[in-house]
Amino acid sequence: MTLARFPLNPDYGQGRYRRLLRFYALPGAVLATVDDSHHAMWVLLRHDGHRIEAVEADISRGPATSCPGSAAGLRKLVGLDIHSSSHAAIASLDRVANCTHLSDLAAWSLRVARHEQPGSRHEYQIRVEDDNDSPFQIEIAKDGKSIHQWLVSGTTIIAPEPLADLPLMRGFMTRARTHFQGDELEAAIMLQRGIWVARGRRHIVDAAPVPLTFYEDMEDACYSYAGERRRTATSHVGYVRDVTDRVRPHPLPGRISRLLTGYDHEQC
To answer: Strand 40-47 and strand 29-36: pairing?
Structure first.
């Protein structure tokens, strides 16, 4: 695997990965943000109560110089029924024209658009303990209340018993749908996505700019690793944050932040 070529992180094994997702129901819109060790991004979906009318997004901090350009790919969601499932929303997007994380964030926002009244706010916090080659804990909580807490060995859930032997990588989505539905299913998918990024804590990947062609196993995985972008873009230097203790959200652009007047959106 490509990451094995990078130097090991000497702090790995003594910390944890965290991810903070926030969803704000606004009049005729949903604003969603995600911050973690490797990313900071936001999506604004405008809707008329039935369909998506416009999409704005940005990647404030991400792994590659080409990442911000992926926001344009979300325009394909315009016209989508807000009652569509998150799975259907993601399936409608071309993988090589989009960022995986922005696509997820936009798709998860649909649930807020159809169920929440303006003024509501929800926060998901994901925690993944470092993998010391022994079982480790992963958890997702919504508004401070734990939804899932799993014991994992490698990339397989070993507890609680009903989920034992459930893979966290290939095959997860199909089997997860047999165990969960509604908010519990969405939270399970959010937690599984966090595992992808948490693996990056093992290595120091941002010490120097690296051509994206270096990541041989990532070709066509997403916007940045496709076509000309993969051949010309590089990784960013110093984009990774230590989130062992807490996630510090990246400041939103002024015009977006002003939409949240009345929300306590800076405090974790």
So the answer is: antiparallel
As a whole number of angstroms, the distance between CA 103 and CA 98 comes to 7
> Is-contact 209 215, C-beta < 8 A?
no
Q: Is residue 33 part of a domain?
A: yes
- CA distance readout (Å), 268 to 91, 222, 245: 32, 30, 11
Domain that holds residue 168: 2-257
Q: What sign does the CA torsion over 39, 109, 99, 78 have?
A: negative
0.90 exceeded by pTM: yes
Strand order in the sheet with 16-26: 52-61, 40-47, 29-36, 16-26, 121-129, 136-142, 145-153, 156-159
State how far the Cα of 65 lies from the Cα of 78, in Å rounded to an integer: 26
Q: Is residue 267 part of a domain?
A: no
Residue indicated by tokens 């989920």: 163
Token digits for 131?
């993998």
Q: Is residue 266 part of a domain?
A: no
With 0-12 / 13-18 / 19 or more C-beta atoms within 10 angstroms meaning exposed / middle / buried, residue 113 is buried
- What's the pLDDT tens digit per position in 66-125? 999 999 999 999 999 999 999 999 999 999 999 999 999 999 999 999 999 999 999 999
* Structural domain contains residue 265: no
| Residues 138-166, mean pLDDT to the nearest whole number | 95
Tokens standing for 247? 């996630």
Task: List the structure tokens of 64.
Answer: 């590659």
CA 197 remoteness from chain centre: 8
- Amino acid (one-letter) located at 56: E
- Overall number of domains in the chain: 1
Per the listing, tokens 């960013």 go with: 236
Question: Per the structure block, which two tokens stand in for 47?
Answer: 């809707």
**Residue with token string 């094995």:** 4
